[in-house]
Amino acid sequence: MIVSALLTSVGINTALCVLFFTLYSILRKQPSNYEVYVPRLLAEGTSKRRSRFNLERLIPSPGWVAKAWSLSEEELLSLSGLDTVVFMRIITFSLKIFTFAGTIGILVILPVNCWADQLQDFDGADFTNSSLDVFTISNVNSGSNWLWVHFSAVYIVTGFICVLLFYEYKHISSRRISYFYSSEPQPHQFTILVHSIPTSNSCSISDSIDSFFKELYPSTYLSHVVIRRTSKIGSLLNEAKNLYKKVTQLRSDPIQQKHKHGGFLGLFGKKINKHIEHYEKKLEDIEVNVKLQQSEASLAGEEARAAFVFFKARYAAATALHLQQSVDPTQWVTELAPEPHDVYWPFFSKSFMRRWISKLVVVVLCIVFTIMFLLPVVLVQGLTNLSQLETLFPFLTSILTIKFVSQIITGYLPSLILQLFLKLVPPAMEFLSSIQGYISRSAIEKSACTKVLWFTIWNVFFATVFSGSFLSMIFIILDPKGIPEKLAIAVPAQASFFITYVVTSGWTSTSSELFRIMPFILSLITRLFTSPDDEFEVPSIPYYNDIPRILFFGLLGLTYFFLAPLILPFLLAYFCLAYIIYRNQFMNVYAPKYETAGKFWPVVHNSMIFSLVLMHIIAVGIFALKKLSLASTLTLPLPVVTLLFNEYCRKRFLPIFVAYSAETLIRKDREDQNDAAMTEFYDNLVNAYEDPALLPIQSSSNTDNLSSPLISEA
User: Fold this and answer.
1) Are 663 and 199 in contact (CB under 8 A)?
2) Cα angle at 555 between 457 and 447, to 5 degrees?
3) Residue that wins the pLDDT comparison between 621 and 394
4) What separation in angstroms does the CA of 288 have from each of 228, 284, 346?
5) Cα–Cα distance, 274 to 567 (Å, whole number)
6) Residue 70: how many CA atoms within 13 Å on its side-chain side?
7) What is the pTM of this model?
8) Which of 205, 365, 394, 704 is the 20 to 30 A CA-CA neighbour of 525?
9) End-to-end Cα, the chain, rounded Å
10) Which of 309, 306, 322 is nearest to 191 (CA)?
């Protein structure tokens, strides 16, 4: 790829970013768009729709940028919790890394690459027609002493990142403990999930749990709630909610309201009333069916051999969690209970044997999905090679000779197509995680986050580097000794593609996050059928989509910072955009649906360690390929030291993210001993984990009053 093709891609994406920023700054001021751009403020009552027209609404303004910039970490913590703080620290952590690496890469390494002449001399007068390979390490002569600059940069940046990783891990660990100390008593802190409960003909599962835990924990056991199979009830409730929305739409539609009392020859009014009566009759039937199913679910036969067990102290719950309860380790298996609103209730409709089968099925599906995704990667790689395109499609030869068209096809189209295909990956991985047997939505998202990250690394990085050939990747894995050399040959060759990928996937996607294209379009459609005063749901940030993207850009930055440092300014621009935009979204759009107290950070740490080791392996291969064997040999200790550092961090910090220490739990329990409110807390604890499908439903006898759902949405 030549510089002009890259500039074309940068120009297109810069124009799109400016367009999104401009549209956002105007549309966010329109009262009809508040549900899209400030749903959180609207739900909290801190922002209200204003009907009075103001000319200022039509003028773009950057005031929101200053508000987002001025938001402190403590304000963010009180606003959205520790998970949000950790998410923003991923961005600031990346900014620190690539500011440091960018300074070295742009001021030191890039001039060295340009001054060399193994591929071609750098011609400043004909800059736009220069190949991007001039800016990479491939242009440095084999055996040149200038390669020691790259060697030194690898060592310096590795040391800087390891120090930064240590202090970030330490800071977030202390934040997690402080957050726990400052929190009010939470139900999940006193609760464990017990499954694989043995059954007996002489007593119910509830009686078995009661006698078992009273015997083992006589002074600390409080109570329990048996989990029941309610998948049928859940399906009925979902059907009822959909019917209720249809009735609401029919009653609130202004066109239908106009014809309600007769219309043309009385036909419209009768037809609309007939539809409403039909849906209301179905709602009444569902209500009767739900009550019947709830009665059946209370029977012993519908118990799921699982229960939430409550204790009087956090330490007692933790002790029961980590101790083997029975002589048979397959019975009375304990698991950490999630927050009540974080429980994924559909999971309990399945037997626990199906949980293990589901895991095997998900592994197979992930492998199949990964292999199938190589097809769009091969397509993208074909677009980056004009000669290959002309061979495959001879009729395009005349079009490809047009300079602007060829620049768009090679510089913009490949990364755009790949980005469109990648949109399918996060929802697919979330679905696969949801059938894997996790008991909470946070665990599902954390699992999906890891799946999306490694899927992206394998299919976008390695598949692109090796031109989408699955067999070539398999042969490389089977020949580990040849990995450094093969990576050293293949990775620099794809530098131009990944630079444009950062611009397209990073800049434009982050700007579209601000503009919220899909929610805006859906809002325009639903506005035709619903009233502005109807209830709406405040969204939560999809961590499984956004965290992998940030970490993947981190991998690209570390991999290419000494190979093709030209990528670093574009990465820095992306992280600056992400810093402002996500802070704005947390203030105005997203509300947390759960709180893991920073459990996503170990995923970040592991990803950075992998990126460092990958960079070291490529460096070993590059220096060997460039006939600087001493530098290659001296690089070998780096991955070993990095992995030892990772092992130290795993022993020092990871246990804090797995469970709280006895010292922490006992200290918190002692603080609560003299709190008079704990008596009321214990009384409410038993009701905290009620299945929403078993809650009482509201009566539908008065169907004319549609101010509240006929079926409870609790």
Assistant:
1) no
2) 50
3) 621
4) 20, 6, 22
5) 63
6) 5
7) 0.85
8) 704
9) 56
10) 309
Q: At which residue do the structure tokens 């804090």 appear?
A: 656
- CA dist 195 and 180 (Å) reads 27
For residues 512 and 21, what is the distance between their CA atoms, to the nearest angstrom?
9
Mean per-residue pLDDT, 16-31:
90
pLDDT over 90, % of the chain: 42
Provide the residue type at 691 as one letter: D
Percentage of residues in the chain having pLDDT higher than 70: 80
Q: Can you tell me the distance from the alpha carbon of 499 to that of 514, in angstroms, rounded to the nearest whole number?
A: 22
Report residue 384's pLDDT band, with 50, 70 and 90 as the boundaries.
low
Tokens 């074909």 belong to: 382
- 314 contacts: CB under 8 Å, gap ≥ 6: 189, 190, 660, 665, 668, 669
Q: How far apart are CA 35 and CA 90, in angstroms?
A: 28
User: pLDDT value at position 699?
Assistant: 47
Which residue shows structure tokens 């340009």?
A: 114
Question: What pLDDT score was predicted for residue 220?
Answer: 93
* Kind of pairing between the strands at 333-336 and 303-311: unpaired
Here the tokens at position 620 are 């070993």
The Cα–Cα gap between 83 and 99 comes to: 24
Average pLDDT over residues 449-456: 93
- Beta-bridge partners for 307: 194, 226
Q: Which three-class secondary structure state does DSSP give residue 400?
A: helix
- Contact by Cβ (8 Å): 289, 298: no
Token reading at 204: 């119910």
- DSSP category for residue 506: I
- Token digits for 407? 């620049």
- Quick one: 71 exposed, middle or buried, by C-beta within 10 A (0-12, 13-18, 19+)? middle
User: Is residue 381 within 8 Å of 468, Cβ to Cβ?
Assistant: yes
Q: Residue 516: what residue type? A: R
Q: Where does 338-397 show beta strands of DSSP type E? A: none
CB of 694 within 8 A of CB of 232? no
* In 527-566, alpha helices (H): 543-560
Contact in structure between 109 and 153 (CB atoms under 8 Å)? yes
| pLDDT digits 0-9 by tens, 632-680 | 999 999 999 999 999 999 999 999 999 999 999 999 999 888 888 888 8
Question: Which amino acid, one-letter code, is at 483?
Answer: I
User: Do 224 and 213 touch, CB atoms closer than 8 A?
Assistant: yes
> Any residues with CB less than 8 A from the CB of 545 and at least 6 apart, and which?
426, 452
Torsion 453-456-461-462 (CA) sign: positive
pLDDT at 115 over 80: yes
pLDDT at 46 over 90: no
3 state SS of 673: helix
Other Cβ atoms within 10 Å of 499 Cβ, number: 27
Burial of 167: CB neighbours in 10 Å, binned 0-12, 13-18, 19+: exposed
The one-character DSSP state at 126 is G
Confidence of residue 265 (pLDDT cuts 50, 70, 90): very low
Higher pLDDT, 17 or 250: 17
The neighbour count for residue 367, using CB atoms within 10 Å, is 10
Alpha-carbon torsion (121, 127, 133, 136), positive or negative: positive
* Rama region for 660: left / alpha / beta (φ>0; ψ in -120 to 50; rest): beta
Dump pLDDT digits (tens) for 301-325.
567 788 999 999 999 999 999 999 9
pLDDT in tens, 172-198: 999 999 999 999 999 999 999 998 888
Q: Exposure string (b/e) for 241-254, b if CB count within 10 Å is 16 or more?
A: eebbbbbbbbeebe
**What pLDDT, on a 0 to 100 scale, did the predictor assign at position 493?**
83
Cβ-based burial of 201 (10 A; exposed 0-12, middle 13-18, buried ≥19) = exposed
The C-alpha atoms of residue 570 and residue 11 are separated, in whole angstroms, by 13
